[in-house]
Write a structure and sequence with these properties.
The protein is 80% helix and 0% strand. It has five helices and no strands. Helix 3 packs across helix 4. The longest helix is centred in the last third of the chain and has 38 residues. The protein is elongated.
Length: 135
């Protein structure tokens, strides 16, 4: 969980660096296509983060010997991380707390990643509005 949260934090920082570096370009006209571009890039960035979190959980479950097949481990991790919780694949009793931990980790990451999306759009839009006002 800690590694996943640290990666999300580093990712947030990297997105901030990206936005600062490209701020002059993003604040020039035309504004709407660039705002759409940032939305698309942030969404892809977020999907990458979710994928990384799911694969980290899958690797941990395989490494602990909870699942033998990679497909089963990835599937369970995805269902748990996204808090979907189908319940068609269950952890052995001695490992069942990991399912809740994966779900809590996913829920926390979804909140952090939503904040990243909102912040990226806010920063770009504010820089665009400042450029329009001549600040």
């Amino acid at each position: 969980m800690i590694v996943s949260i640290l990666i999300a934090g580093i990712s947030f920082w990297a997105m901030e660096v990206f936005l600062v570096r490209f701020s002059p370009f993003l604040s020039r006209k035309p504004h709407r296509p660039k705002l759409g571009l940032i939305l698309a890039l942030a969404a892809i960035w977020i999907l990458g983060q979710i994928t990384a979190g799911v694969w980290m959980w899958a690797a941990a479950l395989i490494g602990l010997g909870v699942f033998e097949a990679l497909e089963t481990s990835v599937y369970f991790s995805l269902v748990a991380f996204t808090t979907l919780g189908f319940g068609d694949i269950l952890l052995p009793e001695e490992w069942r707390l990991l399912g809740g931990m994966a779900a809590a980790n996913g829920l926390l990451n979804m909140g952090l990643l939503t904040a990243l999306l909102v912040e990226a759009l806010r920063v770009v839009r504010n820089s665009q509005l400042d450029a329009i006002r001549g600040k």
